[in-house]
Every structure is written in structure tokens, then in C-alpha cells.
Fold:
Amino acid sequence: MAFRINYNYLSNFTLTQLHNTEHNLNKVVTQLSSGRRIVTAADDVSGYNIVQRLTKVSRGIEQGIMNAQDGISLTQVALAATQQMIDNYQTVRQKALQAANETVNPAERKQIGTEIAKIIEAMDRLAQSVDFNEFKLFQSAKLKDLGVHSFTMKYELTTGESITVTMFTFMIQYGPATGVTGKTSFGANGAGDNRIFAPTFTDTIFSKVLGIKVQDQNFQQIAKALESKYGFGNVEKAESKILEFATRVSDLINILSDQAANMGSTINQLQSIINFNEQAKTTIDEATSRIRDVDFAKATARFQKLQILMQSGTAMLAQANQLPQYALRLIG
Structure:
């Protein structure tokens, strides 16, 4: 047996093992304190890369859910206003049919025309005031200035004439995909697209369909236009013209009803997207957690093991450091 005092192999070996144990113990303490198996990229290079990719998709879906919820809110505001307009124009049509009855005298017919004009004026004010996040949803000029997309719908009036009505839509980015080009009216653009368009329409359809100027007109001006064009005044035999007006109101109700249906289907579509995105996010977050998060049962068991190794390693290092002292017995 050789005794050397300049080099202590057992002491160096024990110190190296103690350093390794300390490093592993620090790592386990970090995992237990953070709840994560992968705290930095050095912990698991490939796992860290996968986690970041999954997190990117998850956060994109999360924002997409919030965007879709905003789209539902926008569409609900537009839908509520549209339904109110439909209800009021149903009243207008009913009043027009009343005025077309030959038992109504000219003075009463003029009063009905004034009542109709007040309703139309109120609907024009409603169309100009419907707002979501400072977007005037039914004002075509302002929507064009904001770059909102548009498409055209063509309606055949029962009177034989045709009319082109410009509708406007808002794009809702509901998923994490980017770089998508093109646009459409309702629904996604195709496979892989993560956009949908929430519909609105412009306030110009009132004037176009009713055949009189409505925008920015008070009820007296609208009443005068109704009287001159459709006979809502002190004139005899105006029934046929008033029936023409009632037909135009029916066409307007059909347009509004179609748009209300489109808005309703858009709300349902966005809600379906939200439900799917929530399920997708749950699945992705579960996969991320399996890779990133620490298993506490395994980590605590390893922590106990390393604590014991740390204590025993410290004790053995003290013993190893005492070995060179045996050489002193050879002197004396």
C-alpha cells in the first residue's frame, strides 16, 4: 500500500461526485420550485424547441378565440339593430296597407304618411348611429375610409326593376394562421384559412329600395316625398301608388331579413369556431404540459435520493481528507 500526501485520489473522486450531486440537486430544486421540467433550453434542447412551437400555436388560438368573441359582439350589435329595423318596417308596411284602403279619406292618409315618415326618419338615425368600437357599422362612406371589405348583392324587386345593394363586412382573424390572402363574403376562404367575415350593410339601401331620399332627411321632408311620389296626401285614387310603396317596403324587409339571417349564421359559425378552438387549445396545452412540466412524484423521490447522497458525500469527503494523515505514523 502506497502513501502519498501530494495527491489524494479518494478525496478528488469524492469531491467530483459531490459536485455532480449538488448540480443535480440544484436542478431538481429548480424544477420543484418552478413546477417545470424544462426551465431553460439547456434542460432539454429538443423538448424546449417543441414546447415553444406548441406555445406559439396555443397563444395564437387563444387570441383567435378572443377575436371571434369580438366578432360575435360586433355581429350581435348589428343584428339587434337590424331586427329593430325589420320590426319597424313591418309597421310601415302595415300602415301603408291601411292607407291603401279606399275607406281611408285623404286627410287620414296624409296623417298615416306623416307617421310612416317619422318611423323612416328614426330608422335612418338608427342606421347612422349603430356603433361598435367607433366603427359606424351601417355608414358606407366611413366604412370605405377604414378599408372595410365590400361585396355586392343584387335583388329583383317585385315591381320588375333590379337594384344593386352594397354590403360591407368585417374580417375576423379567429386562428393562428398568417399570410392568408384573398377575401370573401361569409365563411372562410378555403382549406387552411383562419378568417371569417362578419356581415353588416349600408344605410344607403333605404333610399335605394324605397325610391325616395332618406339619408339625412327629417320626417317633414320624407313625408313630402311620400306625398309627391306615392300619394300619401290630399289626393284621390292614390291606392295603386301606395301599394307600390308597400311592395318596396316588402322588398326592404326581405333584404333586412336576409342580412339578419346572414348575421345569425355568422354568430353560429363563430361560436362553432370558438368551441373547436377551445378544444384544440386544451389538447395542445395538455401536450405542452407533458413535455414541459415536472412529474412531482418522480422529482420528489429524486430530491430525497440526492439529499441522502449529498449528506453521505459530505461525510465521505471528510473521511477521504483524513487518509493522508496516516502517513504521519510512519515518521515517529
Remarks:
- The two ends are 19 Å apart (CA to CA).
- Residues 37 and 294 are 4 Å apart (CA to CA).
- Residues 45-99 form the longest helix (55 residues).
